[in-house]
Design a protein that fits this description.
The complex is a heterodimer of chains A (229) and B (241).
Chain A: H1 6-44, H2 47-62, H3 65-79, H4 92-96, H5 99-124, H6 127-135, H7 140-170, H8 182-193, H9 197-224
Chain B: E1 2-3, E2 6-7, H1 19-53, H2 56-71, H3 74-95, H4 105-130, H5 134-142, H6 147-177, H7 189-200, H8 203-232
Antiparallel strand pairs in B: 1-2
The chains are: A mainly alpha (229), B mainly alpha (241).
Chain lengths: 229, 241
């Protein structure tokens, strides 16, 4: 094993890790926000919205993320230059960059998988708690905000930790559309140094460390959230 | 027919359409997924037995295997197993005085994904075997069954209903994970789609077509899984619910 390339590439690897973390955190944040209505409408209806949410979740969960990502980046991306005026608009620099496409694809993916989790979460809240809230004269919105949503999140918290790790493991796909996350940087190192295993082993180690950190973070959150007796 | 951005004539079965190419890719995807799944199940079964009943070093080795595989992205694992595997094979060939060979894409995909799936299958089966009531195994022993017979007659059938949900999930995962082989270049659907998109620049058409094909695979699988689950749960309480 040869590691003499490491000092030279260290700064770029650090940048790569930072991009990976950005991909992870931003996609998780957007995806989680989207997952709440996706889960909720499947429990409450109306029928048409519930059907649409279910179809979306099935589509996302039933197809490879890599294909979704390439469809969005190459497919949708190839349409934008044809839209008149877009090249001159302020949006163009963002549309040319691969990073937003990766965020878009990963967020939809998180939303699809987590929407399913949230559906189960909303279903798991005991009816009596919701009735008690209503008896207190809470409006539907207050009930959702104060009782239903927090209780649903509480019940699915361990699953959400797993989803975060799955999302981390999906982030290197972004390297296939020229986002230089830590995996992308490792690919560059492999091409420039002709070392095959060392960069891959190194980033495997980095991913394991991040996974451990995520596990610890979620365990810490779980411990801070009061468990029902 | 031209539907604005989507050019369906590109998907015609015979050239210049690339429908036949995509369907060949689909067939390869199914073969690779099925092969990798069987390999994964085999690794998983023996892995689970090793984890539960094996000697200490075997347990440590398996613990390392399942932990690392589950914490490292599939993409990284696929590259590692692929290069390590093909490097090893060619190293052996060279030491035997043979010329290095091109690795068969189908076999490479099956091996690489099978090794990854094996780790997940190990965990699923370990959980299922551990959940079999001890008394059933003790009863088998009391009847004078050998270990092998206990395994075949008692443990294997009793763990199946418990393992099936996890294992069917694994099938849906391996189907989708075959797409990752496009990164090392293969012959399955994602690789074919990428090639077709790149040569024709009709990205939207081909990626949408691939999306539909993958979705169909998943939906058909889910339908079959429902029936398979019912078969393995026969004779259990609440079996037909």
């Amino acid at each position: 094993m040869v590691w003499d390339w490491l000092p030279e590439y260290w700064p770029r690897l650090a940048e790569g890790v930072w991009i990976t973390i950005q991909l992870l955190v931003i996609s998780l944040a957007i995806g989680t926000v989207l997952s709440v209505p996706l889960g909720l409408v499947q429990v409450t209806g109306p029928r048409i919205l519930s059907w649409m949410a279910l179809s979306f979740c099935t589509l996302i969960r039933g197809t490879p993320l890599l294909i979704q990502l390439w469809l969005i980046y190459y497919g949708l991306g190839s349409l934008f230059p044809g839209i008149p005026g877009l090249r001159e608009s302020f949006l163009w620099p963002y549309l040319r960059d691969a990073f937003p496409y990766a965020i878009f694809a990963f967020s939809l993916s998180v939303a699809g998988y987590q929407g399913e989790v949230m559906r189960a979460g909303f279903l798991s809240v005991a009816k009596g708690e919701l009735e008690a809230g209503k008896a207190f004269g809470m409006s539907r919105w207050t009930l959702l905000r104060r009782i239903w949503m927090p209780r649903a999140f509480q019940n699915v918290l361990p699953t959400l930790g797993n989803e975060a790790i799955l999302t981390l493991k999906a982030t290197p796909l972004a390297a296939t559309i020229t986002v230089y996350d830590v995996f992308g940087v490792a690919t560059i190192i492999r091409q420039e140094t002709f070392r095959i295993y060392e960069p891959l082993l190194l980033i495997a180690g980095i991913y394991i460390v991040i996974t451990i950190l995520i596990t610890l973070l979620y365990r810490w959150i779980e411990n801070r959230v009061p468990r029902p007796a | 027919m031209d539907l604005g951005f989507i050019d369906l004539s590109q998907l015609a079965y015979s050239p210049p359409g690339r429908g036949a190419l995509l369907l060949a890719g689909l067939a390869a995807t199914i073969q690779i997924a099925a092969g990798a799944y069987l390999l994964g199940l085999t690794i998983g079964f023996f892995g689970a037995l090793g984890k539960l009943y094996g000697p200490k070093p075997v347990k440590w080795f398996l613990e390392g295997y399942t932990t690392i595989v589950r914490a490292v992205p599939e993409l990284v694992l696929i590259l590692l197993v692929f290069y390590a595997g093909s490097g090893l094979i060619n190293e052996v060939l060279r030491s035997l005085g043979q010329r290095p060979i091109d690795i068969n894409a189908l076999l490479a995909g099956i091996t690489v994904l099978g090794v990854v799936m094996g780790a997940y299958a190990t965990e699923v089966m370990r959980g299922a075997i551990a959940a079999i009531p001890k008394g059933q195994i003790e009863a088998a022993r009391a009847y004078g069954m050998s270990s092998a017979m206990t395994l075949r007659r008692i443990v294997a059938p009793a763990m199946m209903p418990l393992a099936i949900p996890g294992l069917s999930n694994l099938w849906l995962i391996v189907l989708k994970d075959t797409a990752l082989l496009a990164v090392i270049g293969s012959i399955e659907l994602a690789t074919r789609t990428r090639q077709a998109g790149a040569t024709t620049r009709e990205y939207l058409t081909f990626y949408l077509a691939a999306l539909v094909l993958y979705l169909l695979l998943t939906l058909v699988s889910m339908y079959l899984i429902k029936h398979i689950e019912r078969y393995f749960r026969r004779g259990l309480r609440g079996a037909n619910s």
